[in-house]
# Entry
Amino acid sequence: MKFVLVAVLAYLIGCINNAYIFTKYTRNIDIRNYGSGNAGATNVLRVLGPKAAAPVFVLDVLKGVVAVLLGKYFIGMPGALIAGIAVVCGHNWPIFLKFRGGKGVATSVGVVMTINPLLGLIALAIGVAVIAITRYVSLGSMTGAITFALLNIFFPNSVQVLTFAIVLALLVIFQHRSNIKRLINGTESKIGQRAQIK
# Structure
């Protein structure tokens, strides 16, 4: 029963969509109607710029941190892992926004940095490096998620943590499936390219 409660609580925390809330109350727009249509920090960056995206990113990271800490408090590491997946699912598919949320990257950063700070930091550094080199946020995001999963293979903690890392990476990749198509076609937007607000 505790596992279910932790999962539901973490999911609801994830459903607090900071991109939607921030842009709705500061610009009176639904961020999902602009740019990529994604309710996440990257799309806020693309549409409104870094000053608007920064608080959204930080708050999304904190969602992951809070959910994992709550899960760990109630059930230990198994609870942390369940909460980590659930909070990302809440961010991606928020019930309050008709299941149209973000892609879970910033929230995943908070999750992995709380579960395994060292491996999380390495994965984050590699992801950021890919973004800096290629200018593709999507490619860096997927690279970071895959790196975290691979690191858990080479530096195993437990089967549960490895399974968690693989599931998390699959969630990130799944949410970027349209980006993958655009990357292949050469039409993916690079960081710094701004979308127009009509």
